[in-house]
Amino acid sequence: MRTTTDLTRALCRARQQTDELFRLVRPDALYERPIPERHRILFYIGHLEAFDWNLIGRYALDVASFHPTFDHLFAFGIDPPPGQLPSDQPSDWPGLDEMERYNRRTRDEIDALLDINALQDNDALPENGALQDNDAMPEKVTEQLLHVAVEHRLMHAETFAYILHQVDYEKKVSQPSWPAESSRPAPEMLEIPAGTAQLGMKNGGFGWDNEFHAHSVEVPAFSIGKYKVTNGEYLEFVRQGADAPFFWKKPGGVWHYRGMWAEFPLPLEWPVYVTWSEAEAYAKWRGMRLPSEAEWHRAAARSPVSCNVDFRYWDPTPVTADDAATPTARAGGEVSQMTGNGWEWTSSQFAPFPGFEPFPFYSNYSAPFFDGRHFVLKGASPRTAACFLRPSFRNWFRPSYPYLYATMRLVES
């Protein structure tokens, strides 16, 4: 269990990570909307601070607001249904200077409330902590709320990576990037015996509302792809008349991949990033299907975490990239990269577990999306923080949303 000192340290580190991420966008692009279904870039710079302030200052401690307009303006993201895109204009948003003043004051207020100014420098405290657990920590600011603040910010570090990916190359500060090369694996199916899948948070640690309550599901035997479906495999589907995935481009009649920092020839050994609808269509074309959430859990129990997680790389690595580090995987005994190198679509609609209760301080985190129009993803992408690698964590998106780093794996009964 992480202490409050650990969590305040984690909040400071997460702030540094998101600050660095926002600095990769050149100032003249901050009012652009790279993804039509999402807010303009400027919103996310204000949203992270407004969320922390609304959670800790307003909800937990009932401190008077110093800028109610911004508290509300930057409170919530959007997930519009198809055909209902936002129509706001850049002139509808505040100036960057005013927003930066709000952000600075918000952090100053929170740091004063939590007495964590000494932690702004990651090296300011020894490992055993100059602050004892709960020293000077307001009673109503629980470990749960600090977990929420940290993980919410790191969620948006990944969300913003999707947005940054769509910014024109000349409008962002380029980072080193190079496509790794590897041989294309032959498709291989591994048998998963019938058994019990454990879903949900069961060890008393922090989890979001949709991770509760832990329960068991009996799963019949099935077989699952050892590797994620690759670009090379999906290319065969495209050649049969299917539409190309969003991240593929075809300049001069040759397929390329639009990476975060450069465009290059399509890496055939990388996992293909697809929508749920594309994954479902491909699986049917192959005479197979996508795994259910419970089946994913059964197979993931035999799969170590991938090397391509926790912001290590910007783009995917080959589906075989982890084999050298895992002798049992190379020998064929483990399902590869189920957690990392791309989220994995499941066939399961996003729905509450038995006994679901929304967070009282964030009632719209999960419940509005139990609508039959969102599907569960499991695992992690290259831009997923380490704290989300717990098996119980659930991600979800609309079936036609093309921008996220989502892959697929085939199953047959």
Short description:
This protein has 413 residues and is α+β, with helices and mostly antiparallel strands. It has helices at 4-22, 41-60, 68-73, 96-114, 143-165, 231-239, 276-285, 293-300, 327-330; strands spanning 189-192, 195-199, 215-219, 222-225, 248-249, 256-258, 263-265, 343-349, 375-378, 395-397, 406-407, 411-412. The protein has two domains: 4-171, Four Helix Bundle (Hemerythrin (Met), subunit A) (Up-down Bundle), CATH 1.20.120; 189-412, paralog of FGE (formylglycine-generating enzyme), CATH 3.90.1580.10.
Task: Provide a descriptive summary of the structure in words.
This protein has helices spanning 4-22, 41-60, 68-73, 96-114, 143-165, 231-239, 276-285, 293-300, 327-330; strands at 189-192, 195-199, 215-219, 222-225, 248-249, 256-258, 263-265, 343-349, 375-378, 395-397, 406-407, 411-412. The chain folds into 2 domains: 4-171, Up-down Bundle (Four Helix Bundle (Hemerythrin (Met), subunit A)); 189-412, paralog of FGE (formylglycine-generating enzyme), CATH 3.90.1580.10. It is built from 9 helices and 12 strands. The protein is 29% helix and 11% strand. Helix 1 (4-22) packs parallel to helix 5, helix 2 (41-60) runs parallel beside helix 4 (96-114) and helix 2 packs antiparallel against helix 5 (143-165). With 413 residues, it is α+β, with helices and mostly antiparallel strands. The two termini are 39 Å apart. It has a 4-stranded mixed beta sheet with strand order 10-9-8-11.
